[in-house]
Design brief:
This protein is α+β, with helices and mostly antiparallel strands. It has 2 domains: 29-365, no CATH class; 368-474, Immunoglobulin-like (Sandwich), CATH 2.60.40. It has helices at 16-23, 38-57, 89-110, 113-118, 120-136, 139-147, 152-177, 183-191, 197-217, 219-225, 228-231, 247-250, 275-278, 299-311, 323-328, 332-337, 342-363, and strands at residues 2-5, 11-14, 61-62, 65-66, 68-71, 76-79, 82-84, 242-245, 318-321, 368-374, 381-383, 387-398, 404-411, 417-418, 423-426, 431-441, 448-458, 465-474. The strands form 6 sheets. Strands 10, 11, 12, 14 and 16 form a 5-stranded antiparallel beta sheet that branches. Strand 6 (76-79) and strand 7 form a beta hairpin. The longest helix has 26 residues, at 152-177. The chain starts with a strand and ends with a strand.
Amino acid sequence: MSAERTPSGAAKVIPIQEVEQALYEVRKKIYPRAVHGTFAAWRWAFVWLTQLIFYGLCWLPWNDRQAVLFDLVHRKFYIFGWVFWPQDVFYLAIILIISALSLFLFTTVAGRLWCGYACPQTVYTEMFLWVERLVEGDRAKRMKLDGAPISAHKLGLKTAKHTIWIAMALWTGFTFVGYFTPIRELAAEVVSASLGPWETFWILFYGFATYGNAGFMREQVCKYMCPYARFQGVMFDPDTLVITYDRERGDPRGARGRKTDHRAAGLGDCVDCEICVQVCPTGIDIRNGLQYECIGCAACIDACDQVMDKMGYARGLIRYSTENALRSHWGRADILRHIARPRVIVYTVFLTAIVVALMWGLAVRVPLKVNVMRDRAALAREVENEQIENVFRLQVMNTTEAARRYRVSVEGMQEISIASEPLIEVGPAGSHQVAVRVRAPRGAGRSGANTIWFVVRAEDDQRVVVREKASFLVIR
């Protein structure tokens, strides 16, 4: 039992069940209504674009291999003509920074564009909803079917829907794993039922995640699991384009006939049809103002515009606008003029600079990597002719897809030279480790550590050269 005070000061007993119901509400399933229009077309364009890239890119051949392959076993990442090694993690960091800045920029300019059009959760939810509508029918039919008792017809429809969903989810999991295991080899293993345990686990895991998130959890992922919904507000400002309801124009709301003079009746343009709520994938009412659950898909804009067309009213009761635009009654030109504000300019400058730097870095990237390690078994020793010898181990990595021969030389001390074979052959996208003996006269350097440089140069292209620093030890 719980208690609260009445205005007279007496304690009023409240059953615990009522308190629990106030604190926790069981999820009500949302049945989004199908909608057509400009923004719906844009959403489906991004569905096709993202899925053509995701499902198709792993099948694209390149130099007798997969065009995009993250080969974790051999620690090589192939992206078209580039081969990256773990030492190239710097590029990954730059890409992540670019992604974050892009998200900040797009959110500052026009809200949750990523969520509404390109987020995998949105994309796969759209795909699964399309299957659901195809099998079970429109919103009213789906609600009626779910409320009907179990029957052969209902079981048949549900089985068909979930079979298609599972097939889509498993194909998605298979494709995901195909970016880490060559997808043609993976397909052959699936056909021959010889999949390894890790491939099997990740196909099933990713497939289950897709099936659960897009088929069942849907808006719950956006509302409760995705952190972006929580911190998006700090990126908004009064000049951010967001989906807004023009309360001044729409209220007071009320139903009316098409021939009714709603102004004379004291009504606004909103006919209170609630279609904007019915099409919302997260089930919110945009007329209550911007809410964190809004993913910016603009389905409510398309729906409202269709209603306005039928009523003969001007479009734009629900539209992309800004807080300042609504308050000051700005037109489109005024809104566009306020896009180039300081924070947008700062984001754009930083983003452009980093993208240019990344492109420049990739353009001038030397397709060769060298690691120098001292042979700890023989740090320094005296050999014939009063020479001091140090032994190093060089790991030479060829990041091109053609075999290459490299010549190793050393500099930094007088009369220092390579006493072992100076030529190293490395296969395409391969790595080779070799012991290199370096010698110098006793009087060539000071006692102790002396800085030297290994120079590794490709025989067929003198521009491909790497200099690596090392220490040559001179014994007393």
